[in-house]
Amino acid sequence: MITEADVTEFQGLYQKQFGKPIAKDSAFQKLTLLVRQMEIVYQPIRKQINEDGDENGRAIPTNQHG
Q1: What would the 3-class secondary structure string for the chain be?
Q2: Nearest to residue 31, comparing CAs of 54, 53, 51, 11?
Q3: Distance of alpha carbon 52 from alpha carbon 31, whole angstroms
Q4: If you count Cβ atoms within 10 Å of the first and of the last residue's Cβ in the chain, which end, N or C, has fewer?
Q5: pLDDT tens per residue, range 2-11
Q6: Could you state, in order of their start, the residue ranges of all structural domains in the chain?
Q7: What pTM was estimated for this model as a whole?
Q8: Each residue's pLDDT tens digit, 9-66
Q9: Alpha-carbon dihedral of residues 22, 25, 30, 31, nearest 10 degrees?
């Protein structure tokens, strides 16, 4: 859930990056879209790490006794 503090922080970051202020409603909309995009992108990355290796791309050794 995006809080009022999140929107305020986003407004500050937006102004710093783009050099112009952004209204609260626009900031909320853009922040909501950004968060959703990150959820979509990050999910496959986490799944791939769990399947193939650790967060640095190294293979996770398996204990095979036989």
Answers
A1: CCCHHHHHHHHHHHHHHHCCCCCHHHHHHHHHHHHHHHHHHHHHHHHHHHHHCCCCCCCCCCCCCC
A2: 11
A3: 31
A4: C
A5: 999 999 999 9
A6: 4-52
A7: 0.64
A8: 999 999 999 999 999 999 999 999 999 999 888 776 666 666 666 665 566 556 655 4
A9: 100
